[in-house]
Design brief:
five-stranded mixed beta sheet; alpha/beta; about 45% helix; single chain; 60s Ribosomal Protein L30, Chain: A; about 110 residues
Length: about 110
């Protein structure tokens, strides 16, 4: 299954999202769907309080293109992590940053 079983991210993982944002390796807004279609996204993070339509649209695309995704953070958490308002979904475009978050998941850090 493509969905990561994560309930929350710790501060280390949230900091890594912020670093990825500063490095220009995060995609937000409407560009997330485009990055999935273009297979630029390495990992997609979707807010748990996103609309059902948005969650379904993004998860279906991730499954179709075999891109890992995670649902579980809130819009507020995602937004604070990257310093932007009202972010419903993020796509990580860099394999290195995606692997760091996936490694945290394996170690039980996130």
């Amino acid at each position: 299954m493509n969905q990561l079983e994560i309930t929350s991210l710790n501060s280390q993982a949230l900091n890594r999202l912020g670093i990825a944002q500063k490095a220009g390796k995060l995609i937000t807004g409407e560009q997330v769907l485009k990055s999935i279609r273009n297979q630029e996204a390495q990992l997609v993070i979707i807010a748990q309080d996103a609309s059902n339509r948005t969650k379904k649209q993004l998860t279906n695309k991730c499954k179709y293109y075999n891109i890992q995704y995670h649902i579980g953070l809130t819009i507020d958490n995602l937004s604070k992590a990257i310093g932007k308002n009202n972010r419903v979904a993020l796509a990580i475009s860099d394999r290195h940053f995606a692997n760091m978050l996936l490694k945290n998941n394996e170690e039980g850090i996130i």
